[in-house]
């Protein structure tokens, strides 16, 4: 993303958050009235990084309060919650970079580019913002849109693991990735099919993929030692 694109996205996010402040709110985690996120629920969003699958690191488990907060950000337009999820994504990105260094990677942190899974046009029209990019900016990261959607896919919900992989196969293409060292970022990992497709596309585009990082992982893909 160029500088003007970065500034425009930041201003849009700030406006959305300002509008959210004037609307009646309840805690996204427990429904306590008149507060966007209570102290107790904030505490439950402290990062606890796990390797949800080889090469994929996640800052939270997608259950309980964390799941409710992610859903409120994604589906209810509560963009102010992005800053509360930012530490989880940042911790996962740091773990992905450290994991790569521990397995032969040599890239210092400042040379690593974070690449978000692209948001579909339909999702962007519905929300007006890109979820993982919003959280990434709150985490002090500058996401680079190196991936583009090459073909439309069906809704992943309701598909099994094999169906998800078939659904997203060859659906992404990388542009301007040659020679870059990257970490792929997304909001929630379920089967990992979309992340695998992103990694394939980036490698095909000439990038060195150090790993992937997500805000949360679904419980059925819990920590692996």
TrEMBL record:
Q: Which residues form the Phosphoribosyltransferase domain?
A: 107-219
Q: Which Pfam families match?
A: Pribosyltran
Domain of life, per UniProt, equals Bacteria
Q: Which InterPro entries match?
A: ComF/GntX_DNA_util-trans, PRTase-like, PRTase_dom
Q: Which family does it belong to?
A: Belongs to the ComF/GntX family.
> What protein name does the entry list?
ComF family protein
> Which organism is this protein's natural source?
Microbacterium terregens
Q: What is the lineage of its organism?
A: Bacteria, Bacillati, Actinomycetota, Actinomycetes, Micrococcales
């Amino acid at each position: 993303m160029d500088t003007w694109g970065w500034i425009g996205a930041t201003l849009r996010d700030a406006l959305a958050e300002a509008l959210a402040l004037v609307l009646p709110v309840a805690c996204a985690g427990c429904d306590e009235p008149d507060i966007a996120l209570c102290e107790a629920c904030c505490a439950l969003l402290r990062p606890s990084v796990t390797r949800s699958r080889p090469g994929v690191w996640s800052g939270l488990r997608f259950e309980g309060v964390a799941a409710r907060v992610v859903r409120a950000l994604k589906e209810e337009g509560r963009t102010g919650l992005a800053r509360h999820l930012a530490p989880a994504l940042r911790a996962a990105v740091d773990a992905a970079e450290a994991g790569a260094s521990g397995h032969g990677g040599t890239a210092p942190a400042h040379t690593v580019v974070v690449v978000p899974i692209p948001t579909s046009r339909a999702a962007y029209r519905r929300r007006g913002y890109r979820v993982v990019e919003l959280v990434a900016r709150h985490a002090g990261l500058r996401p680079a849109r190196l991936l583009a959607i090459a073909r439309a896919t069906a809704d992943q919900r309701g598909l099994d693991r094999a169906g998800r992989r078939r659904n997203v196969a060859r659906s992404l293409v990388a542009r301007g990735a040659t020679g870059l060292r990257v970490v792929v970022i997304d909001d929630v990992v379920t089967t990992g099919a979309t992340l695998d497709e992103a990694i394939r596309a980036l490698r095909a585009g000439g990038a060195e993929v150090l790993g992937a990082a997500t805000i949360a992982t679904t419980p059925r893909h819990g920590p692996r030692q």
